[in-house]
Amino acid sequence: MSEPLLLGVRHHGPGSARAVRRALAAFQPDVILIEGPPEADPLVPFAGDEDMRAPVALLAYPADNPDPKLRASFWPFAEFSPEWQAIRWAVACEIPVRFIDLPAAVRLASGTPAAPTPADDTVRIDPIGALAEAAGYDDPERWWEDVVEHRQETQPAWTTTVTDTTGIPVSHDLGRTTDRSTGRTATGGTTAGGARDGGAGAGAGAGGVGAGGTTAGGAGAGMAGVGGAGAGGVTAGMATDGGAGAGGAGPAGAGAAGVGGAGGGATAGGGSAGGVAAEGLGGPGSLFAAEPDIDEERLAAAVAPFAAIAEAMAVVRAHAPAPPEAERVDEERREAHMRQALRAATKEFDRVAVVCGAWHVPALTAPLPSASSDAAVLKGLPKVKVAMTWVPWTHARLASWQGYGAGVRSPGWYHHLFTAVDEHVVARWLVRAAGVLRKDGVPVSSAHVIEATRLAEALATMRGRPLAGLAEVTDAAHAVLCDGDDLRLSLINRRLVVGDRLGRVPDQTPGVPIARDVASSQRRLRLQPAVSSREIDLDLRRDLDLQRSQLLHRLRLLGVDWGQVLANRKGRGTFWESWQIAWQPEFAVDLVEAGVYGTTVREAATARVAEQAAEAETLADVTALVERCLLADLPDALPGVLDALDERMALDADVAHLMDALPALARTLRYGDVRGTDLSALRSVTHGMITRVCVGLPAAVGGLDDAAAAVMRDRIDGVQGALALIDDVDASQRWQALLGGLSTRDDLHGLLTGRMSRLLLDAGTVDADEIGARMALVLTVGVPVAKAAAWIEGFLAGDGLLLVHDERLLALVDAWLTGIPADGFVEVLPLLRRTFSGYPAPQRRMIGERAAHLGSGGRPRAGEHDDQVDPDRGALLLPVVAQLLGKEPHHA
Amino acid sequence: MTSTVEAQAVQRRHAEDEFAAELAALAAGDDRPRPPGWLLSPAAVVTYLLGGAAADGTVIIPKYVGSRRLMEVAVATLATDRALLLLGVPGTAKTWVSEHLAAAVSGDSTLLVQGTAGTPEEAIRYGWNYARLLSDGPSRAALVPSPVLRAMADGRIARIEELTRVPSDVQDSLITILSEKTLPVPELGEEVQARKGFNVIATANDRDRGVNELSSALRRRFNTVVLPVPGGVEEEVDIVSRRVAALGKALELPELPPAVDEIRRVVTVFRELRNGATEDGRTKLKSPSGTLSTAEAISVVTNGLALAAHFGDGVLRAGDVAAGILGAVVKDPVSDQVVWQEYLETVIREREGWRDFYRAARRGE
């Protein structure tokens, strides 16, 4: 039996992914253990299906538990994720895969998310990224490539005379003094032994790492020694392994120098690092002895990076700050479970490979704590029943995802790094960037791409990085391809750096319950998802159409915008609803994400609405929810939303908000009936709202300027319209009484009093005589002309017919107008023009005609043309009219 | 290089003279590969621009305070033989950066063409000494080389200021120079080929009206670096203090105690008016017509220092900078005056500890 091979990876790191494949191919394990939920074991074979395309995610959801507090969890994988590559490799080689993380059943029950990710604790989430950062790299994958794999060596772009004897200094002299000193030490050590530059790079990088990690631990100068130890240890590991296979000159010397460094460092730092280094070297050695049939040189080369990373991790872990208690417990449980799974696997299989986050490697390294202590940690943890499946995922989601493997801000770049395996990584990338820009109509020539590539490489050399990383290619694209334009750069970022890759899962994958529900609804309602857009009209009186409408509305609530409501195309009554529907492939992912809310669309939409109602900030938000709730027919959600509405209403001191909210409620009350919902609760809430408006309005209408008065007028109109919709006699009477009181108040803006008077007149509360008297009162010398004009505007707004038909009012306006002094007239002219220009031209003409005949004895004739009908000319029009009406003209 | 006596008499010394010691120290300790024709390696040029220390411990003072990334792109551009276009609103240190780049790369920042609407083609190619031309006919001796031609012949950096102000046809005469690295002289039947180390740094203003956009043929021969306005108050205060101190030394003003508080005020006023909002983000403001660049803030503070030193009590006080600020903000006597008044009455007046400034500003009107 051999030691298990521990492959500590960077989650979603393409460099790790390649290294994992190499290591697995060299090691030929009998079983692969992967960090992930064990419930997913039966799903592994699907990963080999030819219809399966990354990015995909493992989804765990409570199987038959309606408790809304239990949320589903996701474990996303991209093509370049080491875990995914390990799974694919295993499936292809028909080797069993086991997931060894804490079961999803436990994690879901305890309510912790898939991976706790406090923003400040980057070391735990992405320790390799933190190592890279400490070494002065902003792209961890390029660090992995330079330091861990040192696959290529580049030369300054402006010269060909530099040879590898001068080399490219791996450490920076750009102001990072810690790095520089450790870098120099490491370089010295390797030069003595005659190893490759790459070896020096590894040492320098890891040295910087140790120093960075420990500085985070807060222990200053003493820790720098430990950093040095890490550097020495790694150098030793690399040199020895390299000596076996990768062509270093004088391996013994290099090993001695490196080990010396490690020893010295360990003395300074306190022994532990040295011990770990020795362990790391011992592991592969004993392994060679046990398995003579494996290609040892190849294996040694393949596992060397992991040995180095494991040592660095031991140092980082020893000096990382302590996490919060909840997280510590969680980590302890997870690692205990991983160890238990590892023990079980080593009993059963001979050659075991483990693929897990680099952070966990030290916890799984022998000597392991006793099995009984791990069992104690795991004992009696609460569980729920969970189901798991594969779901498609997208690169954009990877970039924004919070949780397991968070922080992949550039999935497109990683995918490129993983798939572009030749030496033209940078050129290929910039060619694609040029393609993105060209597609958007930005002219970019091949000459641009050539120059951008040169610039990226020159930048990398100047920054002391053997390879251009994302920062370099982005800078080069910005300066050359985008002419310094940020907008174009953001286009590249969106399309390329993040990318729009969409995953796919085979049809026979167990479906997500909510997706199954949608699919069955689609079949039942004969509404097939199609990518091409089409328009449908639904007659809500028919049960089938009503259910279709409800499905579309519910999906919209869940963020799946399958259909867009169109403005009523048919326009023949409120029972018609028009939709434009188009099914996008990403909806499958949206739906999966919505699956955290429930297992059916109805259930999920209800939960989502309840959540939104609780989170809503303004009254208007809640009101909109009420409406959507009714449209989507979610009676179970309604009480909660109405409670939220009631609460916001009580707390909202601003009567304007209440007035804004009222029309939507009134519409709901009026037209909700078409959908056959029970609205009594809503009715009482609305009634309460009207009462509040009536109480609050008198205080809200005083002291308004022109602009505020205009807004308030629209609100008053809104309330009036709402009251007309709902059948609430009591409320209407109260409102009319309120308007009656307010409309005679002198301190209000003329626009408002004018408007209120008009509303009262229309409602018949005040008769025409009374209105005439009021108008006469307003349009007298004592009232400033501006106020009078505002009153007129409010009174007449939108409709001049009144003046056409009521000569007395017209006479009043006419007398007032002609009596305005010249300077005052200039002042009110704009107001009057605004008022009258709003009327349709015929109305204006008729008002003009009436005004011209004012005082000339009664109503003018309705028009001279009345009694002079020319039947011949009229007959010419008849066929056209008949055609418009869709009838055959009758021939007498 | 000018002699010491002359150097002390000139009002403003060239970058390569002013910082000759720094450049020499960097060159001595620079063991990285240098592109042909360069006096320093690219990394050392970046150190020279952003400050640090030379190998022998000589302190390099920062010439540009801002993003390292931008300077690296600029230097790498020159190292890859591409022309560099520095874009930005006025006062974002475009000219300053180009002067120091030229000084650090080729030890000579004087090969300068000032672009104006009247810049002739001769300023970029070559002209003729007409007396010679008439008496001897066309010859090398009768040729008057432009700064660009001299830079080509010596393998140095040529600088073109305000490239977008140059008429388009004159701009385009750069295309051959930048792509073929040669300048034909048909009158003599010969050509001048650029030696290694030749390059062009152009600056242009992307805010001005009435500029001549570069043709796309020319544009693609440049890499573009956009220099931003300083990101935060502290960064800008730092820039202003450094430059004021350096200028004060050059102008031989009497030594004054550092006046960081007044500088912070000037910078705050400039930033708030430029951004159209107060620093705390609570109040919206109107912006005046001028650009209110960092360079103007520097000149306001320098002016204030001169006032304080010669007419005041030797300490920079609110009154010394207030008049200068007014002059910088109110470029348009009508509309800017309103902007300034509003700002003064609504923001400055209410601000704690700004009483003296408010009074001084009111007096200044």
TrEMBL record, chain A:
Segments of skewed composition (Basic and acidic residues): 173-182
InterPro entries assigned to the protein according to its UniProt record, in alphabetical order: DUF5682, LolB
Biased composition (Gly residues): 190-207
Domain of life: Bacteria
UniProt-annotated stretches for the region Disordered: 163-207, 246-270
Name of protein: Uncharacterized protein
Entry-linked PANTHER family: OUTER MEMBRANE LOLAB LIPOPROTEIN INSERTION APPARATUS (PTHR30634), PTHR30634:SF14
Pfam families given in the database record: DUF5682
UniProtKB/TrEMBL annotation, chain B:
Gene3D superfamilies, alphabetized: P-loop containing nucleotide triphosphate hydrolases
Database matches in Pfam families: AAA_5 (PF07728)
InterPro entries in the cross-refs: ATPase_dyneun-rel_AAA, CbbQ/NirQ/NorQ/GpvN, P-loop_NTPase
Native source organism of the sequence: Dactylosporangium siamense
Protein's name according to its UniProt entry: ATPase
Coiled coil: none
Domain ATPase dynein-related AAA: 84-222
One GO MF term attached to the UniProt entry: ATP binding
